[in-house]
Amino acid sequence: MYEFNYQAPASLADATKAIAAAEDGKLLAGGMTLVPTLKQRLARPSDLIDLGRIAELKAIKVDGGTVTIGAMATHAEVGASAAVQQAIPGLSWLASNIGDPAVRHRGTLGGSISNNDPAADYPAALLALGATIYTTKRQLSAADFFVGMFETALELDEIVTAVSFPIPEKAAYQKFRNPASRYAVVGVFVAKTGGGARVAVTGAGPSVFRVPAFEAALDRSFAAASLDGLTIDAGELNSDIHASADYRAHLVAVFAKRAVAEIS
User: Fold this and answer.
1) Cα–Cα distance, 191 to 81 (Å, whole number)
2) Could you read off the pLDDT of 119-149 as tens digits, one per residue?
3) Is 69 domain-assigned?
4) pLDDT tens profile 192-247
5) Pairing between β-strand 47-50 and β-strand 25-28 as defined by DSSP bridges
6) Structural domain includes residue 48
């Protein structure tokens, strides 16, 4: 690693001041991507600002028809939360199946979505559930938050504080995981909401995306059979050593049907 200043603020106000004052500061919210990047000397921040001691960023609560999860809640905490399990079981299952135990006990919701890895699981849940992301400056819809591969709408000194998920009628997540990393080669989150069906896909493209054709079919009849014969265009999907674009397109249809079958 290169030399940097380490800061561990105890409050969100102090963290906001620290990142604003840093010449080239980076926020540490779990470090599943940032720490390996630093070890490989691929980044050289002037300051590393650890959010791990800020208790106000860890709360998980259900209020009316919304589940709100603090940005520094770990995947393990989200998965084990009785409130999340009862309100949105599909979100609980997603969190419980991210990476391995070491990753789940260090990685956080806020860190994951701020990094926006194209194979991360949470973005699919946020987009399918119509989540709202709260930051130190504003609130953003999931559709506006995720911009592109490893890119979000966050400003350099902006900190994610929480994510609110409207509770759907029902929802499920299914993924084809890489056997080593457990990242989603393809992951599909399906939600049935008062406003209609929503289908969001991660792992397949440069960033998370919805599938309007699948949603329209499920609005006509919310059953796995409604997706029979439907496919997506492989032209803009990822192709790498793990799966070709055509195979990913096939997997999207397969795992969308599995998610619907789980809850229909």
Assistant:
1) 20
2) 999 999 999 999 999 999 999 999 999 999 9
3) no
4) 999 999 999 999 999 999 999 999 999 999 999 999 999 999 999 999 999 999 99
5) parallel
6) yes
In a domain, 106, yes or no: no
CATH of the domain at 27: 3.30.43.10
Q: Is the pTM of this model over 0.90?
A: yes
Task: Please count the structural domains in the chain.
Answer: 2
User: Is position 178 within any domain?
Assistant: yes
Domain boundary among 31, 53, 75: 53
At residue 4 the predicted structure's pLDDT band, cuts being 50, 70 and 90, is very high
